Amino acid sequence: MLKNKIALVTGASRGIGRAIAETFVREGAKVVICGRKPDTLEQVAREIGPAAIPIVCHVGRSEQIQSMVAQVTRELGRIDILVNNAATNVAQAPCLDIDEGMFDKMIEINLKSAFRLTQLVAPGMCERGSGSIINISSISGLRPQFEGLLYSVTKAALNMMTESYALELGPKGVRVNAIAPGLIQTELSAYYWRDETRREKRMEQQPIRHLGQPMEIAEVALLLASDRSSFMTGQTLVVDGGRLLSSM
Hints:
Blueprint: E1 6-10, H1 15-26, E2 30-35, H2 38-48, E3 52-56, H3 62-76, E4 81-84, H4 100-128, E5 131-136, H5 149-169, E6 174-181, H6 190-193, H7 196-204, H8 214-225, E7 236-239
Parallel strand pairs: 1-2, 1-4, 2-3, 4-5, 5-6, 6-7
């Protein structure tokens, strides 16, 4: 489905990012996986196979993003698919306990990294007349997360960024979409699923009663990356086991 495509996936050393990288490689793409820890990245690349290319990059640092994109373009020629997956949640706290430092970091990682990468990668896509950009958002960007003000704010902004880029880049052949996962079993969301009582309470609030898995998000990302979604842009696809349907 992605034969001969070049993809760049941020935050790909674990969780959803890793699952997306594995899925894209399975479907024939070369995938640049980026993360902050070289040892972890190298190990993940070995486990996925030779089509996974590790590049160390802290997405909160503009100069490292620029260096990574330049390296990928120089060595692989282009980027056909960009997945903005890297995120953090350092401000899981009551809203009045949040300080400006937390605010700045959340904006830097969750929002500005996607903006910076899109600004660097999209021009090449536009010149070639094709490309797919996928932003990993959250249902917390559609409904406020309790004691998760900044996570909700950054993901809501990412949804609007998705729509704005889609509106302008669509005529140039570039599609931009987002995925809004519900509770997925990753380290970022461990607070909600490690404790059995808390996990069971969450499961009771969604029609599909199992804990979401990274690969279930990766399969949706595959659809958005491929030509099978050629008439789809500016959408935020909710993959949450039906959580947002709940009236509880």
